Amino acid sequence: MNIINSIMLNNKLMLFRISLRNLKLLYFNDNIRFSFINLLSYYLKDMDISENSSLYLFLHSYANHLNFKDYNFPNNNQIDNYLNTILNGYKEKLKTGNFLIDIIPFLGIKKYDFRIFFLFELLFIRYLIIAIDDRKNIKTHIINEDINKLITYFKLNKEENILFEKLKDILCTCNFKELGTQLENLIVNSNNKNLIELSDDLLKNVKIITNYISLPVYNVGVFATMSAGKSTFINALLNKDFIPSKNEACTAKITSISDNDSMEDKIFGGCSLDDNKSYIFSNEITKQVIEEWNNNDDIDHIFLETDIKYIHSKKGILVIHDTPGANNSRNEKHGNITNQFLESSKIDLFIYLINAHNPTTNDNYAMMNNVYEAYNKNKNTKILFLINKIDDCDFDSGETIEEIMDTVKKDIENVGFDSPIIIPLSADAARVFRKILKSEELTIKERGAFNTFYNIFEDEKMNLPSYYKDYKLHYNIDNSINTEEEHIIIKNNKYSTKKINDMLNKTSINLIRNIINKEINGSE
Protein backbone atom coordinates (compact mmCIF):
# COMPACT_ATOMS: atom_id res chain seq x y z
CA MET A 1 0.00 0.00 0.00
CA ASN A 2 1.50 3.36 -1.01
CA ILE A 3 0.56 5.10 2.23
CA ILE A 4 2.26 2.47 4.38
CA ASN A 5 5.34 2.52 2.14
CA SER A 6 5.54 6.29 2.48
CA ILE A 7 5.26 6.04 6.26
CA MET A 8 7.98 3.44 6.46
CA LEU A 9 10.41 5.75 4.68
CA ASN A 10 10.46 7.70 7.93
CA ASN A 11 10.14 4.96 10.55
CA LYS A 12 12.71 6.69 12.74
CA LEU A 13 10.67 9.68 13.90
CA MET A 14 12.51 12.78 15.03
CA LEU A 15 10.65 15.60 16.73
CA PHE A 16 12.44 18.89 17.06
CA ARG A 17 11.63 21.93 19.10
CA ILE A 18 13.05 25.38 19.53
CA SER A 19 12.12 27.48 22.58
CA LEU A 20 11.60 31.13 21.69
CA ARG A 21 10.88 33.32 24.69
CA ASN A 22 8.13 31.51 26.59
CA LEU A 23 6.50 29.97 23.52
CA LYS A 24 6.97 26.20 23.42
CA LEU A 25 5.78 24.28 20.37
CA LEU A 26 6.65 21.09 18.56
CA TYR A 27 8.32 21.32 15.17
CA PHE A 28 8.46 18.59 12.54
CA ASN A 29 10.86 18.37 9.65
CA ASP A 30 9.26 18.17 6.23
CA ASN A 31 9.58 14.40 5.71
CA ILE A 32 8.23 13.62 9.17
CA ARG A 33 5.33 15.93 8.55
CA PHE A 34 4.53 14.23 5.24
CA SER A 35 4.45 10.93 7.10
CA PHE A 36 2.09 12.35 9.69
CA ILE A 37 -0.32 13.51 7.01
CA ASN A 38 -0.22 10.10 5.38
CA LEU A 39 -0.62 8.42 8.75
CA LEU A 40 -3.56 10.66 9.61
CA SER A 41 -5.04 9.98 6.20
CA TYR A 42 -4.77 6.23 6.76
CA TYR A 43 -6.39 6.50 10.19
CA LEU A 44 -9.25 8.78 9.18
CA LYS A 45 -10.37 7.07 6.02
CA ASP A 46 -12.86 4.79 7.81
CA MET A 47 -14.21 7.40 10.20
CA ASP A 48 -17.65 8.93 9.99
CA ILE A 49 -17.06 12.51 8.91
CA SER A 50 -20.39 14.23 8.44
CA GLU A 51 -20.71 17.69 6.93
CA ASN A 52 -21.54 19.10 10.37
CA SER A 53 -18.53 17.61 12.16
CA SER A 54 -15.69 19.80 13.37
CA LEU A 55 -13.19 17.67 11.46
CA TYR A 56 -15.09 18.15 8.20
CA LEU A 57 -15.31 21.89 8.77
CA PHE A 58 -11.58 22.03 9.41
CA LEU A 59 -10.70 20.03 6.30
CA HIS A 60 -13.11 22.02 4.16
CA SER A 61 -11.80 25.41 5.29
CA TYR A 62 -8.23 24.16 5.11
CA ALA A 63 -8.48 23.11 1.49
CA ASN A 64 -10.57 26.13 0.56
CA HIS A 65 -7.97 28.46 1.99
CA LEU A 66 -5.20 26.68 0.11
CA ASN A 67 -7.20 27.14 -3.11
CA PHE A 68 -7.27 23.45 -3.97
CA LYS A 69 -9.85 22.87 -6.69
CA ASP A 70 -10.69 19.33 -5.58
CA TYR A 71 -11.56 19.90 -1.94
CA ASN A 72 -15.25 18.93 -1.85
CA PHE A 73 -15.90 15.29 -1.04
CA PRO A 74 -19.48 13.99 -1.27
CA ASN A 75 -18.76 10.81 0.65
CA ASN A 76 -16.48 9.64 3.43
CA ASN A 77 -14.33 7.47 1.20
CA GLN A 78 -12.76 10.49 -0.44
CA ILE A 79 -11.11 11.69 2.76
CA ASP A 80 -8.00 9.70 1.86
CA ASN A 81 -7.69 11.39 -1.51
CA TYR A 82 -8.43 14.73 0.04
CA LEU A 83 -5.57 14.60 2.53
CA ASN A 84 -3.25 13.36 -0.17
CA THR A 85 -4.26 16.41 -2.21
CA ILE A 86 -3.09 18.58 0.69
CA LEU A 87 0.11 16.54 0.86
CA ASN A 88 0.76 17.08 -2.84
CA GLY A 89 0.12 20.78 -2.38
CA TYR A 90 2.90 20.96 0.17
CA LYS A 91 5.17 18.98 -2.10
CA GLU A 92 4.57 21.57 -4.83
CA LYS A 93 5.57 24.25 -2.35
CA LEU A 94 8.75 22.30 -1.73
CA LYS A 95 9.60 22.39 -5.44
CA THR A 96 9.12 26.13 -5.77
CA GLY A 97 11.34 27.31 -2.95
CA ASN A 98 12.66 26.72 0.52
CA PHE A 99 9.95 24.61 2.14
CA LEU A 100 11.21 25.35 5.62
CA ILE A 101 11.04 29.11 5.10
CA ASP A 102 7.60 28.88 3.54
CA ILE A 103 5.86 26.36 5.77
CA ILE A 104 7.31 25.89 9.23
CA PRO A 105 8.14 29.42 10.40
CA PHE A 106 4.70 30.39 11.62
CA LEU A 107 6.55 32.21 14.39
CA GLY A 108 6.88 35.07 11.93
CA ILE A 109 3.29 35.34 10.78
CA LYS A 110 2.59 38.88 9.60
CA LYS A 111 -0.34 38.21 7.30
CA TYR A 112 -3.35 35.98 6.89
CA ASP A 113 -1.98 32.87 5.15
CA PHE A 114 -2.03 29.08 5.12
CA ARG A 115 0.68 28.79 7.79
CA ILE A 116 -2.03 29.48 10.36
CA PHE A 117 -3.77 26.33 9.18
CA PHE A 118 -0.50 24.46 9.30
CA LEU A 119 -0.19 25.45 12.95
CA PHE A 120 -3.71 24.21 13.55
CA GLU A 121 -2.83 20.90 11.93
CA LEU A 122 0.18 20.48 14.21
CA LEU A 123 -1.95 21.17 17.29
CA PHE A 124 -4.64 18.81 16.05
CA ILE A 125 -2.20 15.93 15.54
CA ARG A 126 -0.44 16.66 18.80
CA TYR A 127 -3.68 16.61 20.80
CA LEU A 128 -4.76 13.44 19.02
CA ILE A 129 -1.56 11.63 19.95
CA ILE A 130 -1.69 12.87 23.54
CA ALA A 131 -5.27 11.62 23.77
CA ILE A 132 -4.14 8.15 22.69
CA ASP A 133 -1.31 8.18 25.19
CA ASP A 134 -3.28 9.55 28.17
CA ARG A 135 -6.63 7.96 27.24
CA LYS A 136 -8.49 11.15 28.03
CA ASN A 137 -9.74 14.26 26.30
CA ILE A 138 -7.72 17.41 25.98
CA LYS A 139 -9.07 19.91 28.49
CA THR A 140 -10.60 23.03 26.99
CA HIS A 141 -8.53 25.36 29.14
CA ILE A 142 -5.31 23.86 27.69
CA ILE A 143 -6.50 24.49 24.14
CA ASN A 144 -7.63 28.00 25.11
CA GLU A 145 -4.23 28.72 26.64
CA ASP A 146 -2.38 27.46 23.56
CA ILE A 147 -4.44 29.50 21.11
CA ASN A 148 -4.61 32.63 23.28
CA LYS A 149 -0.86 32.49 23.74
CA LEU A 150 -0.46 32.48 19.97
CA ILE A 151 -2.93 35.34 19.47
CA THR A 152 -1.14 37.46 22.09
CA TYR A 153 2.36 36.52 20.99
CA PHE A 154 1.83 37.24 17.30
CA LYS A 155 -0.23 40.41 17.86
CA LEU A 156 -2.65 39.22 15.20
CA ASN A 157 -4.88 41.58 13.30
CA LYS A 158 -8.67 41.39 13.51
CA GLU A 159 -9.06 39.01 10.56
CA GLU A 160 -6.40 36.64 11.88
CA ASN A 161 -7.84 36.81 15.37
CA ILE A 162 -11.28 35.76 14.11
CA LEU A 163 -9.72 32.84 12.25
CA PHE A 164 -7.83 31.67 15.34
CA GLU A 165 -11.02 31.88 17.41
CA LYS A 166 -12.78 29.65 14.87
CA LEU A 167 -9.93 27.17 14.95
CA LYS A 168 -10.04 27.20 18.74
CA ASP A 169 -13.75 26.37 18.65
CA ILE A 170 -13.03 23.42 16.35
CA LEU A 171 -10.35 22.08 18.67
CA CYS A 172 -12.49 22.58 21.78
CA THR A 173 -15.48 20.71 20.32
CA CYS A 174 -13.43 17.84 18.91
CA ASN A 175 -13.66 14.62 20.94
CA PHE A 176 -10.01 13.68 20.93
CA LYS A 177 -10.54 10.79 23.32
CA GLU A 178 -13.04 9.18 20.95
CA LEU A 179 -10.89 9.88 17.90
CA GLY A 180 -7.86 8.55 19.76
CA THR A 181 -9.65 5.33 20.63
CA GLN A 182 -10.66 4.84 17.00
CA LEU A 183 -7.11 5.45 15.85
CA GLU A 184 -5.74 3.04 18.43
CA ASN A 185 -8.20 0.38 17.32
CA LEU A 186 -7.23 0.92 13.72
CA ILE A 187 -3.58 0.42 14.66
CA VAL A 188 -4.20 -2.75 16.63
CA ASN A 189 -6.61 -4.24 14.09
CA SER A 190 -4.44 -3.41 11.12
CA ASN A 191 -2.23 -6.47 11.78
CA ASN A 192 0.52 -4.48 10.11
CA LYS A 193 3.69 -4.90 12.14
CA ASN A 194 5.40 -1.92 10.53
CA LEU A 195 2.46 0.38 11.23
CA ILE A 196 2.28 -0.76 14.87
CA GLU A 197 6.02 -0.21 15.36
CA LEU A 198 5.78 3.23 13.77
CA SER A 199 2.86 4.21 16.00
CA ASP A 200 4.67 2.96 19.13
CA ASP A 201 7.74 4.95 18.12
CA LEU A 202 5.58 8.01 17.55
CA LEU A 203 3.98 7.78 21.00
CA LYS A 204 7.36 7.24 22.63
CA ASN A 205 8.82 10.33 20.96
CA VAL A 206 5.79 12.47 21.76
CA LYS A 207 6.05 11.47 25.43
CA ILE A 208 9.75 12.39 25.50
CA ILE A 209 9.17 15.74 23.81
CA THR A 210 6.05 16.53 25.85
CA ASN A 211 8.04 15.99 29.04
CA TYR A 212 10.97 17.96 27.64
CA ILE A 213 9.01 21.08 26.73
CA SER A 214 7.31 21.09 30.15
CA LEU A 215 10.64 21.64 31.91
CA PRO A 216 11.69 25.12 33.03
CA VAL A 217 14.40 26.87 31.02
CA TYR A 218 17.70 27.75 32.69
CA ASN A 219 19.33 30.59 30.78
CA VAL A 220 23.10 31.01 30.86
CA GLY A 221 24.47 34.17 29.27
CA VAL A 222 28.14 34.15 28.24
CA PHE A 223 29.83 37.54 27.99
CA ALA A 224 33.33 38.81 27.27
CA THR A 225 35.26 41.47 25.46
CA MET A 226 36.97 40.62 22.19
CA SER A 227 39.72 37.94 22.25
CA ALA A 228 38.91 36.57 25.70
CA GLY A 229 38.31 33.13 24.15
CA LYS A 230 34.54 33.10 24.62
CA SER A 231 33.67 31.00 21.55
CA THR A 232 36.50 28.56 22.33
CA PHE A 233 35.12 28.21 25.86
CA ILE A 234 31.60 27.48 24.59
CA ASN A 235 32.93 24.86 22.16
CA ALA A 236 34.85 23.24 25.01
CA LEU A 237 31.74 23.31 27.22
CA LEU A 238 29.56 21.82 24.46
CA ASN A 239 32.12 19.07 23.81
CA LYS A 240 32.02 19.81 20.09
CA ASP A 241 33.27 22.53 17.73
CA PHE A 242 30.52 24.39 15.95
CA ILE A 243 30.74 27.97 17.22
CA PRO A 244 33.06 30.02 14.95
CA SER A 245 36.31 30.71 16.78
CA LYS A 246 38.92 33.00 15.23
CA ASN A 247 41.31 35.73 16.32
CA GLU A 248 38.98 38.48 15.17
CA ALA A 249 35.62 39.13 16.81
CA CYS A 250 33.69 36.35 15.15
CA THR A 251 30.35 36.27 16.98
CA ALA A 252 28.15 38.75 15.11
CA LYS A 253 24.80 37.96 16.73
CA ILE A 254 23.22 36.12 19.64
CA THR A 255 23.53 32.34 19.34
CA SER A 256 21.29 30.34 21.70
CA ILE A 257 22.06 26.65 22.24
CA SER A 258 19.44 24.46 23.96
CA ASP A 259 20.38 21.18 25.63
CA ASN A 260 18.27 18.16 24.61
CA ASP A 261 19.47 14.81 25.98
CA SER A 262 17.45 12.84 23.45
CA MET A 263 19.26 14.28 20.43
CA GLU A 264 22.57 12.45 20.96
CA ASP A 265 25.00 13.81 18.33
CA LYS A 266 22.35 15.48 16.16
CA ILE A 267 22.18 19.26 15.86
CA PHE A 268 18.96 21.03 14.96
CA GLY A 269 19.00 24.73 14.28
CA GLY A 270 17.13 27.75 13.12
CA CYS A 271 17.73 31.43 12.66
CA SER A 272 15.52 34.49 12.55
CA LEU A 273 15.59 36.95 9.68
CA ASP A 274 15.85 40.52 10.88
CA ASP A 275 13.58 42.28 8.39
CA ASN A 276 10.32 40.39 8.76
CA LYS A 277 11.09 38.09 11.70
CA SER A 278 10.49 34.97 9.62
CA TYR A 279 12.48 31.87 10.47
CA ILE A 280 14.66 29.31 8.72
CA PHE A 281 14.98 25.81 10.18
CA SER A 282 17.30 22.97 9.31
CA ASN A 283 18.04 19.55 10.78
CA GLU A 284 21.36 19.30 8.96
CA ILE A 285 23.48 21.78 10.87
CA THR A 286 27.21 21.95 10.24
CA LYS A 287 29.88 24.38 11.35
CA GLN A 288 29.82 25.80 7.83
CA VAL A 289 26.06 26.48 8.04
CA ILE A 290 26.53 28.28 11.35
CA GLU A 291 29.36 30.38 9.93
CA GLU A 292 27.18 31.33 6.96
CA TRP A 293 24.33 32.34 9.27
CA ASN A 294 26.75 34.21 11.50
CA ASN A 295 28.11 36.21 8.55
CA ASN A 296 24.65 36.97 7.12
CA ASP A 297 23.71 40.52 8.13
CA ASP A 298 20.01 39.78 7.56
CA ILE A 299 20.01 37.23 10.39
CA ASP A 300 19.76 38.60 13.92
CA HIS A 301 19.58 35.46 16.09
CA ILE A 302 20.74 31.85 15.71
CA PHE A 303 19.04 29.01 17.60
CA LEU A 304 20.66 25.60 17.99
CA GLU A 305 19.56 22.46 19.81
CA THR A 306 21.79 19.49 20.64
CA ASP A 307 22.80 17.18 23.46
CA ILE A 308 25.31 18.99 25.67
CA LYS A 309 27.30 16.13 27.13
CA TYR A 310 27.45 15.69 30.92
CA ILE A 311 24.66 18.21 31.50
CA HIS A 312 21.26 16.62 32.04
CA SER A 313 17.79 17.88 31.15
CA LYS A 314 16.08 16.13 34.07
CA LYS A 315 14.79 19.13 36.00
CA GLY A 316 15.45 21.94 33.57
CA ILE A 317 16.65 22.81 30.08
CA LEU A 318 19.98 24.54 29.79
CA VAL A 319 20.04 27.28 27.15
CA ILE A 320 23.46 28.88 26.58
CA HIS A 321 23.42 32.32 24.95
CA ASP A 322 26.64 33.32 23.17
CA THR A 323 26.82 37.11 22.82
CA PRO A 324 28.98 39.29 20.56
CA GLY A 325 32.18 40.78 21.97
CA ALA A 326 31.25 44.31 22.95
CA ASN A 327 34.53 46.07 22.13
CA ASN A 328 34.79 45.35 18.40
CA SER A 329 35.91 48.71 17.00
CA ARG A 330 35.09 47.58 13.45
CA ASN A 331 31.44 46.91 14.26
CA GLU A 332 29.66 48.95 16.93
CA LYS A 333 26.56 46.85 16.30
CA HIS A 334 28.12 44.02 18.33
CA GLY A 335 28.03 46.07 21.52
CA ASN A 336 24.48 47.22 20.84
CA ILE A 337 23.29 43.63 20.35
CA THR A 338 24.86 42.51 23.62
CA ASN A 339 23.49 45.48 25.58
CA GLN A 340 19.98 44.95 24.19
CA PHE A 341 20.19 41.30 25.18
CA LEU A 342 21.28 42.25 28.71
CA GLU A 343 18.37 44.66 29.05
CA SER A 344 15.64 42.39 27.69
CA SER A 345 16.57 38.84 28.76
CA LYS A 346 16.02 36.86 31.93
CA ILE A 347 19.39 35.31 32.74
CA ASP A 348 19.74 32.74 35.52
CA LEU A 349 23.53 32.47 35.37
CA PHE A 350 26.02 34.98 33.98
CA ILE A 351 29.39 33.69 32.82
CA TYR A 352 31.94 36.43 32.27
CA LEU A 353 35.30 35.61 30.66
CA ILE A 354 38.43 37.66 31.27
CA ASN A 355 41.66 37.37 29.30
CA ALA A 356 44.34 36.36 31.83
CA HIS A 357 47.02 37.83 29.60
CA ASN A 358 45.44 41.30 29.72
CA PRO A 359 42.82 41.36 32.48
CA THR A 360 42.66 45.11 33.22
CA THR A 361 41.39 47.22 30.31
CA ASN A 362 38.91 50.07 29.90
CA ASP A 363 36.79 47.94 27.56
CA ASN A 364 36.63 45.14 30.10
CA TYR A 365 35.64 47.58 32.85
CA ALA A 366 32.88 49.10 30.69
CA MET A 367 31.52 45.71 29.70
CA MET A 368 31.61 44.47 33.28
CA ASN A 369 29.58 47.50 34.37
CA ASN A 370 26.89 46.70 31.79
CA VAL A 371 26.73 43.12 33.04
CA TYR A 372 26.56 44.34 36.65
CA GLU A 373 23.51 46.50 35.91
CA ALA A 374 21.65 43.49 34.48
CA TYR A 375 22.90 41.17 37.21
CA ASN A 376 21.92 43.55 40.00
CA LYS A 377 18.26 43.57 38.93
CA ASN A 378 17.77 40.04 40.32
CA LYS A 379 19.61 39.01 43.47
CA ASN A 380 18.79 35.33 42.81
CA THR A 381 20.95 35.42 39.68
CA LYS A 382 24.47 34.00 39.92
CA ILE A 383 27.65 34.90 38.10
CA LEU A 384 30.92 33.07 37.41
CA PHE A 385 34.06 34.97 36.47
CA LEU A 386 36.40 32.84 34.39
CA ILE A 387 40.01 33.92 33.91
CA ASN A 388 40.65 32.28 30.56
CA LYS A 389 43.95 31.66 28.75
CA ILE A 390 45.68 31.12 32.09
CA ASP A 391 48.10 28.84 30.23
CA ASP A 392 49.34 31.88 28.31
CA CYS A 393 50.77 33.61 31.38
CA ASP A 394 54.51 33.91 31.95
CA PHE A 395 55.00 31.92 35.13
CA ASP A 396 58.76 31.68 34.53
CA SER A 397 59.03 35.41 35.25
CA GLY A 398 57.57 34.91 38.72
CA GLU A 399 53.92 35.63 37.91
CA THR A 400 51.52 33.38 39.83
CA ILE A 401 47.91 32.34 39.37
CA GLU A 402 47.09 33.69 42.83
CA GLU A 403 48.39 37.14 41.88
CA ILE A 404 46.37 37.18 38.68
CA MET A 405 43.23 36.18 40.58
CA ASP A 406 43.82 38.88 43.22
CA THR A 407 44.17 41.55 40.49
CA VAL A 408 40.99 40.40 38.76
CA LYS A 409 39.15 40.19 42.10
CA LYS A 410 39.93 43.85 42.87
CA ASP A 411 38.68 44.94 39.43
CA ILE A 412 35.45 42.95 39.86
CA GLU A 413 34.80 44.33 43.35
CA ASN A 414 35.45 47.88 42.13
CA VAL A 415 32.52 47.43 39.75
CA GLY A 416 30.27 46.44 42.66
CA PHE A 417 30.22 42.63 42.76
CA ASP A 418 30.41 41.15 46.27
CA SER A 419 32.30 37.92 47.03
CA PRO A 420 32.80 37.06 43.34
CA ILE A 421 33.28 33.44 42.25
CA ILE A 422 36.50 33.40 40.24
CA ILE A 423 37.82 30.33 38.43
CA PRO A 424 41.02 30.11 36.35
CA LEU A 425 40.46 28.35 33.03
CA SER A 426 42.24 27.06 29.94
CA ALA A 427 39.45 26.59 27.40
CA ASP A 428 41.72 25.94 24.42
CA ALA A 429 43.62 23.22 26.28
CA ALA A 430 40.29 21.62 27.23
CA ARG A 431 39.18 21.69 23.61
CA VAL A 432 42.40 20.13 22.32
CA PHE A 433 42.48 17.43 25.02
CA ARG A 434 38.86 16.59 24.22
CA LYS A 435 39.57 16.27 20.49
CA ILE A 436 42.42 13.86 21.21
CA LEU A 437 40.33 11.71 23.56
CA LYS A 438 37.53 11.58 20.99
CA SER A 439 40.04 10.59 18.27
CA GLU A 440 39.23 13.68 16.22
CA GLU A 441 41.73 14.87 13.65
CA LEU A 442 44.04 17.66 14.80
CA THR A 443 45.34 20.50 12.66
CA ILE A 444 49.10 21.17 12.52
CA LYS A 445 48.57 24.10 14.87
CA GLU A 446 46.56 21.95 17.31
CA ARG A 447 49.24 19.25 17.36
CA GLY A 448 51.78 21.88 18.30
CA ALA A 449 49.43 23.31 20.92
CA PHE A 450 48.92 19.84 22.41
CA ASN A 451 52.63 19.46 23.09
CA THR A 452 52.66 22.84 24.83
CA PHE A 453 49.52 22.14 26.86
CA TYR A 454 50.75 18.66 27.82
CA ASN A 455 53.99 20.11 29.23
CA ILE A 456 52.17 22.95 31.01
CA PHE A 457 49.58 20.74 32.70
CA GLU A 458 52.15 18.27 33.96
CA ASP A 459 52.96 20.99 36.49
CA GLU A 460 50.92 20.45 39.66
CA LYS A 461 50.32 24.19 40.10
CA MET A 462 48.22 23.99 36.90
CA ASN A 463 45.47 22.04 38.69
CA LEU A 464 43.17 25.00 38.03
CA PRO A 465 40.02 23.78 39.85
CA SER A 466 41.96 23.73 43.13
CA TYR A 467 42.05 27.55 43.06
CA TYR A 468 38.27 27.62 43.48
CA LYS A 469 37.56 27.39 47.20
CA ASP A 470 34.45 25.18 46.91
CA TYR A 471 35.62 23.03 44.03
CA LYS A 472 35.33 19.75 46.00
CA LEU A 473 31.58 20.35 46.38
CA HIS A 474 31.22 20.32 42.60
CA TYR A 475 33.75 17.68 41.71
CA ASN A 476 32.08 14.36 42.43
CA ILE A 477 30.76 13.78 38.91
CA ASP A 478 32.91 11.79 36.51
CA ASN A 479 33.07 13.64 33.21
CA SER A 480 35.95 11.65 31.79
CA ILE A 481 35.73 10.89 28.11
CA ASN A 482 35.59 7.13 27.76
CA THR A 483 37.95 5.53 25.32
CA GLU A 484 38.79 1.87 24.71
CA GLU A 485 42.43 2.71 24.11
CA GLU A 486 44.82 2.96 27.04
CA HIS A 487 47.28 4.96 24.95
CA ILE A 488 47.10 7.40 22.05
CA ILE A 489 49.85 7.87 19.46
CA ILE A 490 50.58 11.46 18.40
CA LYS A 491 53.60 12.20 16.20
CA ASN A 492 54.99 8.73 17.01
CA ASN A 493 54.79 9.50 20.74
CA LYS A 494 52.64 7.41 23.09
CA TYR A 495 50.40 9.18 25.62
CA SER A 496 48.23 7.72 28.38
CA THR A 497 44.51 8.42 27.86
CA LYS A 498 44.03 8.43 31.62
CA LYS A 499 46.65 11.13 31.99
CA ILE A 500 45.09 13.23 29.24
CA ASN A 501 41.70 12.85 30.96
CA ASP A 502 43.32 14.03 34.20
CA MET A 503 44.76 17.02 32.34
CA LEU A 504 41.32 17.75 30.90
CA ASN A 505 39.97 17.90 34.45
CA LYS A 506 42.79 20.28 35.41
CA THR A 507 41.66 22.85 32.81
CA SER A 508 38.52 23.64 34.92
CA ILE A 509 36.08 22.88 32.09
CA ASN A 510 34.54 19.92 33.95
CA LEU A 511 34.31 21.93 37.16
CA ILE A 512 32.33 24.63 35.34
CA ARG A 513 30.13 22.03 33.69
CA ASN A 514 29.39 20.43 37.06
CA ILE A 515 28.51 23.79 38.63
CA ILE A 516 25.99 24.43 35.84
CA ASN A 517 24.61 20.89 36.10
CA LYS A 518 24.01 21.25 39.83
CA GLU A 519 22.40 24.66 39.41
CA ILE A 520 19.86 23.09 37.05
CA ASN A 521 19.30 19.66 38.60
CA GLY A 522 20.49 20.05 42.20
CA SER A 523 22.45 17.32 43.92
CA GLU A 524 21.80 14.02 42.16
Kindly list the characteristics that best describe this protein.
GTP-binding, membrane, two-stranded antiparallel ribbon, disordered N terminus, 19 helices, 2 domains, 524 residues, alpha/beta, 13 strands, nine-stranded mixed beta sheet, Rossmann fold
Structural summary, described in words:
- The chain has 19 helices and 13 strands.
- By secondary structure, it is an alpha/beta fold.
- It folds into 2 domains: 2-213, no CATH class; 217-521, P-loop containing nucleotide triphosphate hydrolases (Rossmann fold), CATH 3.40.50.
- The strands form 3 sheets. It has a 9-stranded mixed sheet with strand order 6-5-7-4-8-3-9-10-11, with helices on both faces. The chain has a two-stranded antiparallel sheet with strand order 1-2.
- It is globular and about 75 Å long.
- Residues 1-84 and 93-115 have low confidence and may be disordered.
Q: Taking Cα atoms only, what radius of gyration do you get, to the nearest Å?
A: 26 Å
Mean pLDDT: 70
How far is it from the N-terminal to the C-terminal residue, by CA?
49 Å
Rough outline: globular
Count of the separate structural domains:
2
**CATH second-level architecture of the largest domain:** 3-Layer(aba) Sandwich
Largest sheet: 9 strands, mixed
The CATH topology assignment of the largest domain is Rossmann fold
- CATH class of the largest domain reads Alpha Beta
Helix content: 40-55%
Number of helices: 19
| Side-by-side strand order of the widest sheet | 6-5-7-4-8-3-9-10-11
Instruction: Give the class from helix and strand content and strand pairing.
Output: alpha/beta
Report the uncertain regions.
1-84, 93-115
Determine the strand fraction and express it as a percent band. 5-15%
- CATH homology superfamily name of the largest domain: P-loop containing nucleotide triphosphate hydrolases
| Counted beta strands | 13
Subcellular location: Membrane
Protein name: Dynamin N-terminal domain-containing protein
GO molecular function: GTP binding; GTPase activity
Domain Dynamin N-terminal: 220-389
